[in-house]
Design a protein that fits this description.
With about 300 residues, the chain is an alpha/beta fold. It is built from 7 helices and 19 strands. Helix 1 links the parallel strand 1 and strand 2. It binds flavin-adenine dinucleotide (FAD).
Length: about 300
């Protein structure tokens, strides 16, 4: 059994920053999670303050992990399989049956983007397949792209991409986006194609998108914008009820409303961006450590 003042679940930018801020408040901190499973691991970042160019997300995670450990955080690179409230605190169990007991918990478990499930999607991820126009749009300046998805989020991405790409196809069989957003995307020049994606094709990089009506669109990039599911399942075990969209609601100090439980990063909702994850991580780490010091004692 490992004991900690603050337990953090999730080893992405939110969890790592929370670990740094909590550890610097001189409480004992354990972080459970695998940095390689963070959304950042497959990403290139060019919109984070002070980090110019196309920064490698895996490298940011490697450095961040070292920083957190350097300030005294103990890392367990495992998944949490169960969580519970116990004896006025919290207890989690990992996939190797390691138990961690803590006075406060920070949920930094991120989201997983909804997949399209067509051939080529996985193989060409990061080589023309993206799940985030707001993140990767700039890499497609002057190129031809398709946005896939019928919701407002996809329409907004289609509109956004008209500011970067030379041609934007918005591919959706059924449209559930708001009328206003549909109008905006069309007015901006996105061409609505009423079909479903059948396969994403390319060798080294994406070069075309095959549709279920037989059409093949020649293009450079495909943005799959079908929304995301948060990894908030553990929250309910700690008595935190996720919102209808599966996100965890927090206040300005990242407090969930359940004593001793905080949340930060993508799991709290949009924007799904590193800057917000890091900002909330700092807030949650500080708040959890201060709560332990003030209410439970060290
Ligand atoms: C392709 C791509 C490109 C992107 N580009 C940009 C960009 O240019 N700019 C930008 O700002 N953002 C970008 N993002 C978004 C950015 O990566 C995320 O906003 C950020 O990583 C969110 O941080 P997080 O810590 O909240 O979640 P994550 O980084 O996803 O980390 C979540 C962590 O929780 C862990 N976890 C989940 N469940 C459990 C469990 N049961 N037990 C233990 N651990 C668990 C995961 O393993 C992971 O370690 C991009 C994302 C993607 C996918």
């Amino acid at each position: 059994m490992i004991n900690a003042d603050v337990l953090i679940i999730g080893a992405g930018p939110a969890g790592l920053q929370a670990a740094i801020h909590a550890a610097r408040k001189k409480v004992s901190v354990v972080l459970v999670g695998k940095p390689e499973n963070s959304a950042l691991a497959g990403a290139h970042i060019e919109n984070y303050l002070g980090v110019p160019g196309k920064a490698d997300g895996s490298e940011i995670l490697r450095i961040g992990t070292g920083q957190a450990e350097g300030f005294g955080c103990r890392m367990l690179k495992e998944n949490v399989t169960s969580a519970a409230r116990k004896d006025g605190g919290f207890e989690i169990v990992t996939e190797t049956d390691e138990a961690v007991r803590a006075k406060a918990v920070i949920l930094a478990t991120g989201i997983s983007r909804v997949k399209l499930g067509v051939p080529g999607e996985k193989e060409l991820f990061g080589r023309g397949v993206s799940y985030c126009a707001a993140c990767d749009g700039n890499f497609y300046k002057g190129k031809v792209v398709a946005i896939i998805g019928g919701e407002t989020e996809a329409a907004a991405s289609a509109e956004l991409m008209t500011a970067y790409a030379s041609k934007v196809y918005w591919v959706a069989k059924d449209i559930a986006a708001s009328e206003n957003m549909v109008r905006k995307a069309s007015a901006a020049g996105a061409e609505l194609v009423r079909a479903a994606a059948k396969a994403i094709k390319g060798d080294d990089r994406v070069n075309s998108l095959e549709l279920d009506n037989g059409t093949v669109l020649e293009l450079d990039g495909v943005f799959i914008e079908l929304g995301a599911k948060s990894s908030a399942d553990l929250a309910m075990d700690l008595d935190v009820m996720p919102e209808m969209d599966d996100t965890i609601k927090v206040d300005a100090s990242c407090f969930t409303g359940i004593e001793g439980v905080y949340a930060c990063g993508d799991v709290t909702g949009k924007p799904w961006q590193m800057a917000k994850a890091v900002g909330q991580g700092a807030v949650a780490g500080t708040a959890a450590a201060e709560w332990v010091r003030a209410n439970v004692g060290k």
